[in-house]
Amino acid sequence: NFEPRLLPSTNLCALCSSNSLGEIPRVVLSSFFLLNNLGLEYEAYELMAQSKFVKVCADIRQCWPTVVHICVHHRLGWVKVREASVVMAISSPHRHDGHQAIQHCISQLKAKIPIWKKEVYDTQEVSWKLSECSWSLHSKVHNENGNLSE
Amino acid sequence: MTARVCVLYFAKSAELTGLKEEEVAAVPTPISSRDLWNLLLQRHPRLQTLQDRVVLAVRQQYVAIGDQVAVTLGDRDEVAVVPPLSGG
To answer: Which stretches are transmembrane (chain A) (predicted)?
Structure first.
């Protein structure tokens, strides 16, 4: 879900806590807060980001079949300092699975989802952030069949 | 054969080209992703700044830039220029 407005973390917990299996779900919540800048401007290739997220969720369910709900909200556009830009919640009756699944979700978000942010400073300087995707380094390694490893 | 594709520019690449999207006609197909990138470089030499730190996305699948990487294009296909990601 891409949101231009403030993220409702309590709603995410509620969404993830619906108890269709009769188990007590544990909700692992992860959010990222911006501390040192004026703000961030987020941009996304929205259709592709949606389909990539669907794949990440499918992978999560395959690796951790006890996962019940997955909710990811990512803000786009302007995010002021001290506001959360991403909130994720994953529920599972097994806390360990929930933790592992959310770590995987975060790392896949950073490596695979076509979203970009630039830092905006009060000096009117802007800077596009780099991250851990495989082409952010000056690497000469090319995958010969052209498919970036999924 | 050639195709008329819709090229999308994101983040730094949009700043470098001054465009969010453009239609590019008469793109040869099939084409190596290297040649496709070079075609975009010819149109927008400032994209050189992203050399070696960029991939393409064709029909919403990532494609690394390489001589051995073959891409087939059809009319109205989306080709996106994808600078290093920074979601989250």
So the answer is: none
